[in-house]
Design goal:
Layout (H helix, E strand, L loop, with lengths): L16 E2 L2 H8 L17 E4 L15 E5 L2 H10 L7 E3 L7 H4 L5 E5 L5 H10 L6 E7 H7 L10 H7 L2 E9 L4 E2 L6 E8 L9 H12 L6 H4 L1 H4 L20 H13 L1
Parallel strand pairs: 2-3, 2-5, 3-4, 5-6
Antiparallel strand pairs: 1-8, 6-9, 7-9
Helix pairs in contact: 7-10
Length: 265
């Protein structure tokens, strides 16, 4: 199997078809967690998002894989060339799918994600965090760097914190524009998100999101200034040293602790 050039990428769907099979194989292999980690997802069902003409699909175990594709032309091609998938080719918008109806238990997610909706895809994965122990794939390099960022870096932001509450995120490798048709104007990267050991948040998750978003909406200011609208000017909490920091300096655990302190004040 190779890249199928007769189906033209659609700009409206943000399609950039991967043409390098060696890169596709490397992406497929990201669901194989190193043995020394003591974790294996090799037996779990796999959901591939946006398979296009199946360049990545061909390297996934057919019996375990379900694909979801919005493009009617690509769906027709997949049905013809991947009969092993049987009725597991779903023509739909991934963002609108009820994944509980697709999978009774745990499953992994992989894909060459449309760059224009990649953040929305990862927030949807977060909604199913108890069912998705591993999610990997390719996206815009800038977004990948943001997801895998650490406190203290300029790339550290809202999505970094909210995803890192539940997942360990690895930046695996960079992919150059030349291996796509058409070549995107940006570089790409492959990441892997692995569910961490956290089982309880020990704070109000909805309010945590509010604290994180409010803080980063004024990321150049200290927490004391950025959270005044949320806590109220002059609150005694502002005497705590944590409010001298800027939001990108706070770890996930510090955001959780701060959320509880605000709730109790």
């Amino acid at each position: 199997m190779s890249y199928h050039r007769e189906i033209k990428p659609k700009k409206s769907l943000g399609q950039h078809f991967l043409t390098d099979l060696s890169v596709a194989k490397r992406i497929a292999d990201t669901l194989v967690i190193p043995a020394q980690a003591g974790i294996s997802y090799s037996k779990l069902p796999i959901l591939e998002v946006g398979p296009g003409t199946g360049v990545l699909t061909q390297f996934l175990p057919q019996a375990q894989t379900t694909v979801v594709e919005l493009d009617t032309e690509s769906v027709a091609y997949l049905k013809t060339h991947y009969p092993g998938l049987n009725d597991r080719i779903i023509e739909a918008d991934f963002l609108q799918l009820d994944l509980d109806k697709l999978f009774a238990g745990q499953f992994c997610v992989i894909g060459n994600y449309p760059y224009n909706i990649s953040s929305q895809i990862f927030f949807k994965v977060l909604d199913y965090k108890d069912k998705i122990p591993c999610c990997s794939g390719m996206l815009q390099k800038e977004v990948a760097e943001r997801l895998a960022s650490k406190p203290g870096k300029k790339t550290y932001g809202i999505i970094t914190v909210l995803l890192n509450v539940w997942y360990d995120i690895e930046y695996l490798f960079t992919v150059e524009p030349e291996v796509f048709d058409p070549p995107p104007k940006v570089r790409s990267a492959v990441i892997r998100m692995t569910r961490n050991s956290r089982t309880e948040l020990n704070c109000d998750e909805t309010f945590l999101k509010t604290v994180v978003k409010t803080a980063f909406n004024q990321r150049r200011k200290t927490m004391r200034n950025s959270l005044q609208s949320l806590i109220g000017k002059g609150n005694e909490l502002f005497a705590l040293p944590i409010f001298d920091k800027r939001p990108e300096q706070l770890s996930v655990d510090e955001f959780i602790e701060l959320t509880n302190q605000i709730r109790l004040s």
